[in-house]
Automatic annotation (TrEMBL):
A single MF term (Gene Ontology): oxidoreductase activity
PANTHER family, alphabetized: MULTI-COPPER OXIDASE (PTHR11709), SKU5 SIMILAR 3 (PTHR11709:SF58)
Name the record gives this protein: Monocopper oxidase-like protein SKU5
Pfam family, one: Cu-oxidase
Family stated for the protein in its record: Belongs to the multicopper oxidase family.
Keyword terms of this UniProt record: Signal
Length: 553
């Protein structure tokens, strides 16, 4: 009952602010759990003893209250990839706006999925923890009064794909701290499970694999999230079309793919119709992209699609990936082909294309350049150059153009918290002002995470309509851990719009130089309270500069 007290208190206080909208309550215990997804025992991060964690199923405008108990032996933050937290960056769950939950403590998140629909996911944002799990889905359904631009599916399936290492996240972290590369992953998991034994020489016996059971003739919505460390994956279902209908909160023009590249941190949803003869089960495949496939064969996830009238097990070769091992033109053309459905409503009844982003004057332009890692003070670090400070200062209602230039040799994906942005262009080479002539200024897809190919650029535009302090980062965990992030500070400096961000919550955690303001909480998780020593050491080194910036906005 004591653990529920903070949850109930927050719910009571929030009820006055959003009384007209429903509440959804979640009580999570984040713990370590033993698992052997690739046949080797290792420590994974579970939510309520589930790996992956439970799917959060809510509806537009719901108020979400999540009481998180940190039963790990190190600090914890949960971030909500794609949830915009309107004017409420305190709930974002990243360093710079939120102090971590100490080991053995609980903290209650309280936010609203205001004017949003779509497929997103949550994950632990500190110290490579996502490489050990702790992730789960967020499904934001349409309100009943808003029509959806396709028939109601017969089922809804969430599928997590991602590269995976047999080493624990703490080991991976130490490798990066020591200046080492993580190297090739040991495999790809699907919903936390290893590959089906499609090849006896590549997949050992005894691996547990994912099986998705379906009925013939029915259509299912697959929500697919790449929650991995750093590997772009090609997703395909043997003999079935993938009808893309939504990505990260935007309905897209419906189009069929036989396969689609899904980059780290990205989410897509497809309609898949069970229109085959079920002579056997079918492979669901996620394989590594832009690598030497002969060397990376093991980095392939394989699950099974099983009709209720299936006549046997899947066998034979996997469906072929795109035939462009190193040529990324195919993948870029795929990405360019994804367009927003401008005539349908989403969270609101007005069409998605009502906001004519292509006709708005740009207030500020930033070119953020990804370079190969450099040595700073004797340590290997990654940076976003051309930013002289760690903060992009801007103003409420400004309209930003951000160009991500990737001069490294691997695909990077970039994410902006608090916002969806329009992907207006991408191409190879160095971006110049003449590149604007190629921009899509009408139906560019609106999303929160975009890929940037090596030796290429991607341009996005966003309207700064939510005051706060918002994280901009690479989603590739190794690059992010080594430092590649910045922040956008959005203020209403003269009060002209009379719009301000929400005040800091009453249950705000204090840490670093402000830790003396924190009231003690008796550790009540399954971890040792002695692990709290790790927290102070971690925060003094990493968080203090960011916290000072956050408190200054």
């Amino acid at each position: 009952m004591a653990a529920l007290a903070p949850l109930l208190a927050v719910a009571f206080l929030a009820a006055a602010a959003h009384a007209a909208d429903p509440f959804a309550f979640f009580d999570w215990d984040v713990t370590y759990m033993a698992a052997s997804p690739l046949g080797v025992p290792q420590q994974v991060i579970a939510v309520n003893k589930q790996f992956p964690g439970p799917v959060m199923n809510v509806t537009t405008n719901y108020n979400v209250v999540v009481n998180v108990l940190n039963s790990l032996d190190e600090p914890l933050l949960i971030t909500w990839d794609g949830i915009q937290h309107r004017k409420n960056c305190w709930q974002d769950g990243v360093l710079g706006t939120t102090c971590p939950i100490p080991p053995g403590w609980n903290w209650t998140y309280n936010f609203q999925v205001k004017d949003q629909i779509g497929s997103f996911f949550y994950f632990p944002s500190l110290g490579m923890q996502r490489a050990a799990g702790g992730f789960g889905g967020i499904t934001v359904n349409n309100r009943a009064v808003i029509s959806v631009p396709f028939d109601t599916p017969d089922g809804d399936i969430t599928l997590f794909i991602g590269d995976w290492y047999k080493k624990n996240h703490t080991h991976l972290r130490k490798m990066l701290d020591d200046g080492k590369e993580l190297g090739m992953p040991d495999g790809v998991l699907m919903n936390g499970k290893g590959p089906y034994r499609y090849n006896d020489s590549l997949v050992p016996d005894g691996i547990e694999y994912e099986t998705i059971k379906v009925e013939p003739g029915k259509t299912y919505r697959f929500r697919v999230h790449n929650v991995g460390v750093s590997t772009s994956l090609n997703f395909r279902i043997q003999n079935h079309n993938l009808a893309l209908v939504e990505t990260e909160g935007s309905y897209t023009m419906k189009q069929n793919f036989t396969n689609l590249d899904i980059h780290v941190g990205q989410s897509y949803s497809f309609l898949v119709t069970m229109d085959q003869n079920a002579s056997s089960d079918y492979y669901i495949v996620a394989s590594a992209r832009f690598v030497n496939e002969s060397l990376w064969t093991r980095v392939t996830g394989v699950a099974i699609l099983q009709y209720s009238n299936s006549k046997g097990k899947a066998s034979g070769p996997l469906p072929d990936p795109p035939n462009d091992e190193y040529d990324k033109t195919f993948s870029m053309n795929q990405a360019r082909s994804i367009r927003m459905n401008v005539s349908t409503g989403a969270a609101r009844p007005n069409p998605q294309g009502s906001f004519h982003y292509g006709s708005i004057n740009v207030s500020q332009v930033y070119k953020l350049r990804n370079e190969p890692p450099v040595i700073i003070n004797g340590k290997k670090r990654t940076t976003l150059s051309v930013i002289r400070t760690s903060v992009i200062n801007s103003t409420y209602k400004n309209f930003l153009e951000i160009v991500f230039q990737n001069n490294d040799t691997i695909v990077q994906t970039y994410h902006i918290d608090g916002y969806a942005f329009w992907v207006v262009g991408m191409d190879y080479g160095e971006w110049t002002e003449n590149s604007r002539g190629t921009y899509n200024k009408w139906d560019g897809v609106s999303r929160c995470t975009t890929q940037v190919f090596p030796g290429a650029w991607t341009a996005v535009m966003l309207s700064l309509d939510s005051p706060g302090f918002w994280n901009v980062r690479t989603e590739n965990l190794d690059t992010w851990y080594l430092g590649q992030e910045t922040y956008i500070r959005v203020v209403d400096p003269d009060g002209g719009y009379n719009v301000t961000e929400m005040v800091a919550p009453d249950n705000m955690l204090y840490c670093g130089l402000l830790r003396d303001k924190q009231k003690a909480q008796k550790p009540h998780g399954s971890s040792s309270s002695a692990a709290a020593v790790k927290l102070n050491n971690y925060l003094l080194v990493v968080l203090v500069p960011l916290l000072a910036l956050a408190l200054g906005h």
